[in-house]
Write a structure and sequence with these properties.
The complex is a heterodimer of chains A (94) and B (267).
Chain A lengths: L1 E8 L5 E8 L4 E8 L2 E3 L4 H7 L7 H14 L3 E3 L3 H13 L1
Antiparallel strand pairs in A: 1-2, 2-3, 4-5
Helix pairs in contact in A: 2-3
Chain B lengths: L2 E10 L1 H14 L7 E7 L3 E4 L5 H4 L2 H7 L2 E4 L7 E3 L2 E9 L9 H18 L4 E4 L3 E4 L2 E11 L2 E9 L4 H7 L8 H11 L3 H5 L5 H16 L2 E4 L4 H15 L2 H6 L16
Chain lengths: 94, 267
């Protein structure tokens, strides 16, 4: 089990701070923090849980996040699914 | 002419301030009377956004040393040092038709009250999406909104005076080595009513101007009122079980005694 953190400033958006635990190829657990907005707020837990077990591939992560957002009618402000996927990958590399 | 209720709750602790906003939100009669509230913070306080990690954003020891309150908001956004400012909150039913269903549009609509209020103070302000208001390109107001139980709650600051040096004694930054540069950046990007007008702006003067701003923006009259007994009860509970509770402020948990707040479950 490896762990990592990242801080990613979205261009023209907000800050994403990721704490990640992973097996080397998939997410074990992820915590998403930052100064962004998400409606409804509690859904951050849905994203975090929904990403458990997801392979560590930026495109796969982006698609998974997009699917969670769509399924639950979430609204993201200050970042997009692609930004979150990128921030998570940055945490892997550290 | 339609009426909004105006609450002038004065200076309060951070926990009490956030608890009143939450109580007003849960009690906001649908589609009854919307509420505008003006308040300030005593002692000064740092509030952090719903999604932030307290230790990463705040120097808790320094806050303790300086007697500064720290509280987690129920709204997203960043860490804010509340000292010389007027804080407002606005609550209305989503079905009141007063603000758009579209969240971005509704920020703009509510923030326009502040833009007009700053105009009444003699400042040419503009809304800067997503959630800021600027004068001469510099931030003078930050705003944050949440929607729960069919109610829109937005609160925000109007910076009357700013001490960036003091602010950064209390706030942490991602890279300590770059702190000096960040302080210079923020000094360039943030302003205050005092800086812009070249004189001190008392809270009461700012409140009178913001009252005008809300009245003009919504075409209503703001009539001073009080918290209802139910709101007062809810505020006490929200203060005790959430905003004065370390489990909430540190980990976003609500008190094990449970929470009245049905749509905001413990995590």
């Amino acid at each position: 089990m490896a762990s990592g953190k990242s801080v990613f400033k979205v261009e023209g958006g907000k800050l994403l701070k990721i704490s990640l635990e992973h097996s080397g190829c998939a997410i074990s657990s992820v915590k998403i923090a930052g100064d962004f907005f998400l409606h409804p707020e509690e859904a951050v837990g849905l994203i975090e849980e929904g990403l458990e077990g997801t392979p560590l591939d930026e495109n796969t992560l982006k698609n998974k996040i997009e699917a969670i957002v769509k399924e639950n009618s979430l609204q993201l402000f200050g970042f997009a699914p692609a930004d979150l996927a990128r921030a998570i990958m940055m945490a892997v590399k550290q | 002419m339609t009426r909004f209720r105006l609450l002038l709750t004065g200076e309060n602790s951070a926990a009490r301030n956030m608890a009143i906003d939450e109580a007003v939100m849960w009690c906001c009669p649908k589609p009854g009377i919307p509420t505008v509230r003006f308040y300030s913070w005593k002692p000064p306080a740092v509030s952090i956004g719903y999604f932030q990690q307290i230790e990463e954003e705040v120097d808790l020891e320094e806050c303790k040393k300086q007697g500064v309150d720290v509280v987690r908001r129920i709204t997203g956004g960043g860490a804010v040092f509340h000292e010389k400012e007027l804080t407002y909150s606005f609550a209305c039913g989503e079905e009141s038709g007063l603000v758009s269903e579209n969240i971005l549009e509704s920020y703009k609509k509510i923030c326009n009250s502040i833009v007009l209020g700053l105009g009444a103070l003699g400042l040419k302000a503009e809304f800067a999406p997503l959630n800021d208001i600027v004068v001469g390109g510099k931030k003078i107001s930050g705003n944050a909104q949440t929607r729960r139980g069919g109610v829109v709650l937005q609160h925000g600051t109007i910076i009357l005076g700013v001490d960036v040096g003091k602010m950064f004694l209390l706030l942490r930054v991602p890279n300590e080595k770059l702190k000096g540069k960040m302080i210079e950046d923020v000094k360039q990007r943030v302003t205050s009513a005092e800086q812009q007008l070249g004189r001190k702006v008392p809270f009461e003067e700012a409140a009178a101007a913001m009252k005008k701003g809300f009245e003009e923006n919504f075409g209503v009259k703001l009539e001073e009122g009080e918290l209802t007994a139910v709101e007062e009860g809810m505020a006490k509970m929200a203060e005790e079980r959430r905003f004065a509770y370390s489990g909430w402020n540190y980990c976003r948990r609500t008190s094990p005694r449970g929470c009245i707040l049905r749509d905001l479950p413990a995590e």
